Amino acid sequence: MVTAAVAGGHERFPVLGLSLGSTVAVTAAARHPDRVSGLVLVVGFAASDAQSRAFAELYAALARADRIDDLARLLLLSTGSPAKLATTPPATVDLLADYHRGRAAGLAPQLDLVRSVDVRAALPGIRVPTLVVGATHDRIVLPASTRALADAISGAQYAEVDGAGHLFTAPESARLGELVSLFLSRNHL
Fold first, then answer.
1. Quick one: which of 50, 42, 51 has its CA closest to 161?
2. Which of 18, 174, 175, 171 minimizes the C-alpha distance to 84?
3. Given a cut of 90, is residue 157 above it in pLDDT?
4. How would you write the chain as a 3-class SS string?
5. What average pLDDT score do residues 111-121 get?
6. What whole-number distance in Å separates Cα of residue 101 and Cα of residue 99?
7. Residues belonging to the active site
8. Which of 29, 38, 87, 175 could cross-link to 14 by cystine, CB 3.0-4.6 Å?
């Protein structure tokens, strides 16, 4: 990722990581402090908690067993907020299943990585402006794990998108965009 950014003409740049991508962003900042100017870590974690481990194991098992309809139900129950779930039409399970058919097995190794990734040792060395954003109704990465990520990075700012689940709705994404824009402008990133 850093090599690609530099090849694209960017000498220093902020990095945003979402969920597992937060560990990628932290690793980039730890390995390339001369390149990464700031971090935005959204529904992230430093090491998996029991909730994210269980989700990842179940997702990977269902994908490998080609149980795509069950995988779609798991995603429906896990990714959004309770408020979003209450207004989700029944046909959404079919749409999720159709989307993941043929893709899920390829995502299983990524979910396996969730169980083993651990960037806690790198966190004390992070010295760039950092914004960590949690979702109050996240059922994949517990909000406490996202808060712990913020607490482990010196000077990190923490914010939450109230009512959001692991995947944000359009209004929740707009709120996230506001938080990120404000952070980037305040830190001249």
1. 42
2. 171
3. yes
4. CHHHHHHCCCCCEEEEEECCHHHHHHHHHHHCCCCEEEEEEECCCCECCHHHHHHHHHHHHHHHCCCHHHHHHHHHHHHCCHHHHHCCCCCHHHHHHHHHCCCHHHHHHHHHHHHHCECHHHHHHCCCCEEEEEECCCCCCCHHHHHHHHHCCCCCEEEEECCCCCCCCHHHHHHHHHHHHHHHHHCCC
5. 94
6. 6
7. 19, 138, 166
8. 38
- Would you say 57 and 130 are in contact if contact means Cβ atoms under 8 Å apart? no
Residues 6+ apart with CB under 8 A from 53: 114, 115
Q: Residue 70, Cα to own-chain centre: how many angstroms?
A: 23
Structure tokens that stand for 74 in this block: 């798991």
pLDDT, residue 43, reads: 98
